[in-house]
Design brief:
single chain, alpha+beta, rod-shaped
């Protein structure tokens, strides 16, 4: 249920409870007052009848002596010398009785009078209808006002949420407070707080991107000299091998940093063209196994894409798959499996799987899945996929292991010629 209808329901419930409470209080007060009025009328009528009977010996004002319908408790009280009033039913109707002792000859009798309560019941029924109609009318009126007011709040929150989503997708020039166009309330304060948070986060991200780009460029120049010097080492010794290995790893790291900075800045260019998924994957796996990129780990691949062809940048597509496989080799465990499908490429390993933060929000630079390294491989793979219109889904299998799915962009539906 949306916030709008929760507010409306709360307001209508409050109105109904308040109306019912007031109605019950009014109804009880009216019933008490009406009961007292009927008792007073019955008692007055009985007193007048007793006076007439004492003076004339004639029963008047609908009184009776020893009425058989008189309730037994009222009769007993009257015989003990008390004047009483009581409410009881007779002939399927409610009556207010008044009774008193009276001397008839040599014995004491009971003189009584009864009055129908139908008029009072109609009055109370009218009060009940008025309370019900008032409650319904108030609920409709206040509910309508609450719907309008809550709708305004809901609309502002909805457009604010839409702006926040655009910001999350890269439209950092949007501001939530700009779309919430009026008001000086909690919603406006929340929008300003979101805008402030976005500004701080944007500054932090831009600072991180500048640091990545500056670091990569500053390291590239001295690294070029190191690479050239390492290539001049001809002796076959363990120190020389270590130097070449470390220089190569540093060169890869700098290239990764440069690639990340290009993706951040939006300067990455693509060369799109149709490729066969299975053929491209077969060629890539042959290259990776021959170059030692997989460090001797066997990879089982199942080709299931058939004749599927996609329009993409083959070099960047192969970079995505390579980074994911290297990540599986470094942080996963054998067996490593690759499956091609008409709509995706799936890579599975038997390691500990992705940590919860990567599954929930995706990879973050400078944080790797295994807790070591710079964690740029997955970041670059995700950036390349986004550039090509693909999506990467990071998940863990039911029995452990990382499951990574690279989904291809959906092909546009073919146009049907008119006519």
């Amino acid at each position: 249920m949306s916030l709008r209808w929760k507010i409306v329901l709360l307001v209508i419930t409050s109105v109904v409870i308040a109306a019912l409470t007031c109605g019950v209080v009014v109804r009880q007060s009216a019933a008490r007052a009406e009961g007292e009025r009927q008792r007073a009328n019955a008692t007055e009528q009985l007193n007048q009848a007793v006076t007439v009977y004492a003076d004339t010996g004639v029963l008047a004002l609908n009184t009776m002596i020893d009425d058989p319908d008189l309730p037994a408790d009222a009769r007993e009280s009257a015989l003990r010398g008390q004047s009483v009033t009581t409410l009881s039913s007779a002939d399927d109707q409610d009556y207010m009785w008044a009774a008193a002792p009276i001397q008839v000859g040599s014995h004491t009798a009971v003189i009584s009078v009864r009055q129908s309560t139908a008029e009072s019941e109609r009055l109370l029924a009218g009060i009940d209808r008025a309370v019900l109609l008032g409650m319904l009318g108030s609920a409709l009126l206040i509910g309508g006002i609450a719907t309008f007011a809550a709708g305004q709040i809901s609309r502002r929150l909805t457009v604010g949420a839409q702006a926040a989503r655009r910001i999350a997708h890269g439209e950092t020039t949007d501001r939530v407070s700009d779309v919430i166009d009026y008001g000086n309330d909690e919603v406006a304060d929340f929008a300003l707080a979101v805008d402030f948070a976005v500004e701080r986060l944007t500054e932090k991200i831009e600072s991180e991107q500048r640091f990545t780009a500056d670091l990569a460029h500053e390291m590239r120049t001295p690294l070029t000299g190191l690479v050239n010097a390492a290539n001049l080492l001809e002796e076959e010794s363990r120190p020389a091998e270590l130097v070449k290995e470390r220089v190569t790893r540093m060169q890869v790291l700098v290239e990764d940093l440069l690639e990340v900075s290009r993706l951040d800045a939006g300067r990455a260019e693509t060369m799109m063209g149709p490729i066969s998924v299975d053929a491209s994957m077969h060629s890539l796996m042959t290259t990776l196994e021959g170059s030692g990129t997989l460090a001797g780990h066997p990879v089982d691949i199942a080709y299931g894409a058939g004749d599927t062809r996609i329009v993409t940048d083959q070099r960047r597509f192969e970079r995505i798959i390579t980074n994911l496989l290297v990540n599986a080799v470094k942080h996963g465990a054998d067996p490593i499996e690759v499956e091609t499908r008409p709509d995706a490429v799936v890579i599975r390993d038997s390691g500990p799987g992705y940590p919860p933060d990567i599954v929930a929000t995706g990879p973050t630079r400078f944080v790797s899945a295994g807790g070591g390294g710079m964690g740029l491989g997955l970041v670059i793979a995700q950036g390349q996929a986004r550039l090509l219109g693909m999506t990467i889904e990071f998940a863990n299998g039911p029995n452990g292991g990382a499951h990574t799915t690279v989904r291809f962009p959906q092909a546009p539906a073919p146009e049907v010629p008119a006519g």
